[in-house]
Amino acid sequence: MPATPPKPRGRRPKTDAPPDTVATSADDRYRAPALDKGLDILELLATQPHGLTRAEIVKEMDRSASEIYRMLERLVARQYVMRNPSGDRYALSLKLFALAHMHPPLSRLINQALPIMDDFTRKAEQSCHMGVYDRGNVLISAQINSPSGWSFAVQRGARVGLLDTASGHLLLAYADEGRFNRMLAEHTPLDGEVPITEEALAAILASVRRQGYVERESAQTLGVVDISFPILGPDNTALATLTCPYIRRIDRHVGPNMEQVREYLRDAAAALSLTQGMNAV
Question: Where are the domains of the chain?
Fold first, then answer.
């Protein structure tokens, strides 16, 4: 039912071709091999709760012992990696954890999302809100009204259901197995929430994964169509969702139609998704 978790890192493939004959992508033009090597070590150690010996790191990364030794010594000196008391095993320190909490991830995500959401509301003439998982349901962490003055909005700080909203279904559909099970275990029904069977929920989430977004009539408000896209992390799990509660005007004003609004919202979510190689959250 949940999204398939990413495959573990394997060894780097070898190539006998000289560097100048290897085809490079746009990203490869700006490679920094030493930096890549250090990041590879950090990512490898992040998957090893008990650490690895230098020989094990060399084997996993398929590099020479001397270059791994030099990089490990620099990471130890900068306190990103620590050695155990006997000195034969390396593990991540808490420095990355401390750095991350100097700028809370949710605050950074909101700061990056607000200008993109504002641009969306101006083009779409609709309101927009961002939802994140929080203690069993969905927390509306950011919200911007339509500048046109005509819109339907969900207030920032509101909590909406995990099992009966577009945001909740996207967060569940794009969760790895462990997080998916945790979210369901922590879920508590909110006021007005309509019960759903396990089979019905599984069918909805399968449909969401196939389509990649949600577009359907609101289960809470008559006349509103919820359009929602996931903001994806590098492992293809949902960090958050962007949702437009679309309302159609019936006077003489001609604004963007629902198809145009959907594409504007798709672009906004893609701009915030790590899978697109754009902004780091």
Answer: 32-99, 103-276
CATH 1.10.10.10 correct for 32-99: yes
For residue 32, what are the CA distances in angstroms to 27, 70, 112, 173, 188? 11, 16, 26, 36, 48
Identify the CA nearest to 67 among candidates 42, 92, 99, 37: 37
**CA nearest to 268, candidates 106, 116, 109, 112:** 116
In 3-state terms the chain splits into helix, strand, coil percentages (rounded to 5) of 45, 15, 40
- Look up the CATH number of domain 103-276: 3.30.450.40
Pairing mode, strands 90-92 and 137-144: unpaired
pTM over 0.85: no
pLDDT by 10s per residue, the chain, length 281: 555 544 444 444 444 444 444 444 555 677 888 898 899 999 999 988 889 999 999 999 888 888 889 999 999 999 999 998 877 899 998 888 777 666 678 888 999 999 999 999 999 999 999 999 998 999 999 999 998 877 788 899 999 999 999 999 999 999 999 999 999 999 999 998 988 999 999 999 999 999 999 999 998 998 899 999 999 988 899 999 999 999 998 888 888 999 999 999 999 999 999 754 334 33
Closest CA to 243 of 115, 157, 130, 146: 130
